[in-house]
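Contributing new complexes? Match this layout with adenosine monophosphate.
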Amino acid sequence: MDLPPVDLCVVRDMGAPLGHYPPFAGDARNSIGKRTINKTTFSDLGLRDELLTALGELGYEEPTPIQQEAIPPLIEGRDLLGNAATGTGKTAAFALPLLHTMTAIGSGRTPRALVLVPTRELAMQVSEAIHRYGRALGARVLPVYGGQPIFRQIKAMERGVDVVVATPGRARDHVARGTLVLDDITVVVLDEADEMLDMGFAEDIGAILDGIPEGRQTVLFSATMPPRIRAIAQSHLTDPVRVQIEDGPTAAGESPRIRQAAYVVQRAYKPAALVRLLDAESPTAALVFCRTRIEVEQLVETLNGRGYRAEALHGGMTQEQRDRVMGRLRSGTTDLLVATDVAARGLDIDQLTHVINFDVPSAPAQYVHRIGRVGRAGREGVAITLAEPREHRMLKNIERVTGQRVPQQALPTVADLRARRLDVTTATLRESILEEELESFRVVVETLSDEFDVMDVAAAAVKLAHQASRGSDEDDEDIPEPRVREDRPQRAGQGGGYQGGDGAPRRANRAGPSRPAPEGSTRIFVGAGRIAGVRPQDLVGAIANEANIAGREIGAIQIADRFSLVDVPTSSAEKVIAALRAGSVKGRKVTVRRDGKPTR
Ligand code: AMP
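Output block (do not edit by hand):
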């Protein structure tokens, strides 16, 4: 089962223009030749005006590498097989062409495009993104996932819809009920296909694809390319263009003086995490990269609201405005620059000590390019990346491509931060004592020492100095630790899913249900096991689809002859039990209950 050769690899090296790398005729899959093209804008890609307006309003300044490569062939109607993880901009890579080519937007009754995604969370996210891009076109987008009352979805479908974004199980339910009509679908997208297969959706996906008329355009995005994905590509894609973010030449190895670190933090807590890191690191000057103009502006406002001197730099500013900002940075009036890649291109700032990626860059080479702004001319530099839990894979990819570790660290705690601030205050006081210009203040100490202990007088003075330099500690908010998905072992080449090389289910512990559920988990008893043909993926699929919890949140699964045990987060246990009781496992109603007590 061979994949089609890579038609287009995206390589971007150290600020050089993007290059297309079409294969040499008859070469092996990975031997690629090189052709350099000029920088591409969204309008170069030929997108319709309404989409360009939407992108401008969203503050997108240029297409990400995967968008540059995927959009033109998709507009031409080609099938496409893309290697891309979350964070690369893959949603817009398929959503923009889909909206560009769609006819009768806003007027047809049955959907013209179907996007299949593994989880409810992604269904909502993708559908919101398509809605934002297609707003000016009047596109009607409907997310459809397990767990939400089906009748509400049916009603929405009856009102007419252009794009359906669905989890496979629920989509198949709708097809069976006749409420999701596939007859007019011209584009189908399988997003995060490897994840869908891992969750046991292979059969649902196959059935849905078989029900869509021939001649449709099929797009498959997957972060990994295990044999089962190749098999799907082979049987359901026609002569696909293959696109992947490839490992361009990188020069990270030439910058040993850059200390790199990554912090995984939920989106909502990113500004708080940034502030905490800035306090802990005290950069002389820092360049913070954001993806969009809007993000730049919002972050500048947040930072200034918290007492920093931050300035924005983005493509929507005139050259004169940008020069003024750079002048303020060079003179030290500003020490924090928040910028998009486009605006920061070519900047060379001597005093820069820190580069901070507020988002994971959309390709490894972009990461290398960004962090190369520090650690120049023998100076030391720090590169910090904030990643959302879902972007974990992009970090791994960066490490693989650059051949360097980007250690994942825990954010400084509120206590760490306060201790660090006290260190700064102590150092400032020490300097002041050494300067010896204290005569005029001694009288205050003497007066107060008649009334109070000298130690208390000193402590009160330290408190005032501390607060004056930093403000109050009261706005330090707690930043919860995110759950990070670890890469699933051995997916590629092992038949996918939960099968190990020996064919034994990886997550099914045949040694018996002896270990307690890990902390924060509740073990659930399901009254069907091996004899009833239950496999781990059946349980993952049933839980993820019907109870709205992401597959990755489901813990160990143990399958005995007559029953199974599944560990789920305690916070979701009730929901999972209710959903499994209401639904079925392997087509049968089964007993479902808690097994023992939740751990904490
Ligand atoms: P995705 O990989 O599709 O999950 O996208 C990751 C993030 O990048 C999302 O927040 C998008 O809004 C954002 N994004 C996608 N394309 C671009 C672009 N060309 N410029 C700036 N941000 C983008």
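Reviewers usually confirm one structural detail per submission. For this one: Residues 8-38, 249-255, 485-514 have pLDDT under 50 and may be disordered.
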